[in-house]
TrEMBL record:
Residue segments, region Disordered: 1-22
Domain of life, source organism: Bacteria
Compositional bias (Polar residues): 1-10
Any Pfam family matching the protein: DUF3987
Name assigned to this protein: DUF3987 domain-containing protein
InterPro entries recorded: DUF3987
Length: 65
């Protein structure tokens, strides 16, 4: 769930770096497993809410732009 939480927070927060000002919060994650271990299936389930939100945002952008 860390990846899902991080994805949701990235658009909401910045990080203040000494001498560098504000930078976007970013989380980088890698799924490591053998071939056939259902990585894509698990990602689809775990990130379903993120995918729905992104699709809604794309729809809103099309209506505005």
């Amino acid at each position: 769930m860390r990846r899902e939480t991080s994805t949701g927070l990235q658009a909401q927060r910045d990080v203040a770096l000494p001498g560098s000002g504000q930078k976007p919060l970013t989380g980088l994650f890698v799924s490591v497993a053998e071939s056939g271990e259902r990585k894509s299936s698990v990602d689809r389930v775990a990130l379903a809410a993120v995918y729905r939100t992104e699709e809604r945002w794309r729809g809103e952008k099309r209506r505005v732009g």
